[in-house]
Write a structure and sequence with these properties.
By secondary structure, the chain is of the alpha+beta class. It contains 6 helices and 4 strands, in the order αβαβααβαβα. The protein has one domain. The chain has a 4-stranded antiparallel β-sheet with strand order 2-3-1-4, with helices on both faces.
């Protein structure tokens, strides 16, 4: 299996949580992608899909761009009650719209991604397995950075850690 085949197989696996927003055009979607990136979302969990920039959909081996989109969205929306979504989304992209797909991990990222997507005024938002994210927690549950639990604050008059550890009588 070549590189393209391996990537297609990876995309076709059942994915977990997906937030997908449709925007009226590429420029709006591109700004929303940038906002997600600037907020800290890794680039491998943000996808822009449009006729102008098909993204991972271009890895799908079919004879038309429309079928590439439909097959790609079919890999994202796999539930029996989501069977019509891929074709609908492919038609929207055929008409000039653009899609931003976010793969959030945990409730903190889901909430933040939802806020950013809604701020871009999407024409529609589609969710997949948002309520069932099975132990996916890439973001902290609180606003306090995890490193703060490890970092020792220096409240002494020592100017370095050596002095703080070994010097007892500092002025």
């Amino acid at each position: 299996m070549g590189l393209s085949g391996a990537l297609c197989a990876q995309v076709e696996e059942d994915v977990s949580a997906v937030l997908l927003a449709i925007f009226p055009d590429y420029d709006v979607a591109s700004r929303v992608r940038l906002a997600l990136f600037e907020d800290g979302f890794p680039t491998d969990r943000i996808e822009l899909t449009a006729s102008r920039e098909p993204g991972r959909a271009a890895l799908m081996t079919t004879d038309t761009v429309h079928r590439q989109f439909a097959r790609y969205f079919g890999a994202l929306f796999t539930s029996p009650n989501e069977q019509e979504i891929p074709e609908h989304l492919a038609c929207r992209l055929d008409d000039g719209a653009a899609a931003i797909t976010v793969h959030p991990r945990g409730p903190v990222e889901t909430s933040r991604a939802s806020q950013i997507l809604k701020h871009g005024h999407p024409t529609e938002v589609v969710e997949h397995e948002i309520a069932d994210q099975r132990f996916e927690h890439a973001a902290a549950r609180t606003a306090r950075p995890w490193v703060s639990h490890l970092w020792v604050e220096n409240h002494s008059k020592a100017h370095c850690i050596y002095c703080w550890l070994f010097e007892k009588d500092l002025p």
